[in-house]
Amino acid sequence: MNKALYRHLPAVPFEVVMIGGAIVTFSQGNWKHFAASLFTLVVCFVPLLAEKLFRIILPAAIHFIFAAFIFTSFFSGEVMHFYKNIWYWDDLMHFSSSFMIGTFMMMGLIIVKKRYKKFFVPPWLSALIVFSATIAVTIIWEISEFASDEIFGTFSQGADLFDTMMDIVYETTSAAIAAWIWILYGKSRKVALITPLLNHFARLNP
Predict the structure, then answer these.
(1) What is the pLDDT of residues 74-84, one digit of tens each?
(2) Do 35 and 126 belong to one domain?
(3) Range of the domain at 40
(4) Which of 48, 88, 98, 100 is the most interior residue, by most CB within 10 Å?
């Protein structure tokens, strides 16, 4: 088996459920949720695309975490109605998505430092890069949610402006936490779960 596909195996259970969701919604003639099921299934393969596009190796844990997030956010939120039935689900997804993006930014900085030996950025500036880039991506995410709600009739942003503003607050807080963790990582301080993941990623990409 291709090594990249082998690393992707932890994501397969989520993809199987999404395929099941596509089959069920298709049989029901629920085209909106059928499209959502197919979309989330395709998005789950983004880590494989990223490996080829950026010539990197992602840990199996990243394939799992990314698929788990796609499953719990868009698929569970829309197709399984978690956004409507669990009041805090949207807040939790925005906080976790921002932190996940921040982790990806950290990995990006690790790759840049390895490929460009003369590249040096002060710790405070690299932390600012992690924070700013994460915020930029989350803003794009908010715009995509707005477009999805307006065009496809989804329920991603809730019912009012307050919900959207709170999403931004959660995302900003999470991005700040990610930036602080990057500073600690640069000082060789251990952060549970994150430090082992970043170290593993660094070893896979010498």
Answers:
(1) 899 889 989 88
(2) no
(3) 1-80
(4) 98
Q: What is the pTM of this model?
A: 0.89
If one counts every other C-beta atom within 10 angstroms of the C-beta of residue 110, the result is 18
How much is the mean pLDDT over the chain? Answer: 90
Number of domains in the chain: 2
Going by C-alpha positions, the residue among 180, 184, 194, 175 that lies closest to residue 132 is 175
Q: Are residues 102 and 189 in the same domain?
A: yes
For residue 28, what are its two tokens? 């029901």
Helix (H) or strand (E) holding 13: helix 12-27
Task: Decide if pLDDT at 145 tops 90.
Answer: no
Residue 155 pLDDT > 80: no
User: Is 72 found in the same domain as 95?
Assistant: no
Answer yes or no: are the C-beta atoms of 77 and 90 closer than 8 Å.
yes
Task: List phi, psi (to 5°) of 45.
Answer: -90, 5
Cα gap 203→206, rounded to integer Å: 6
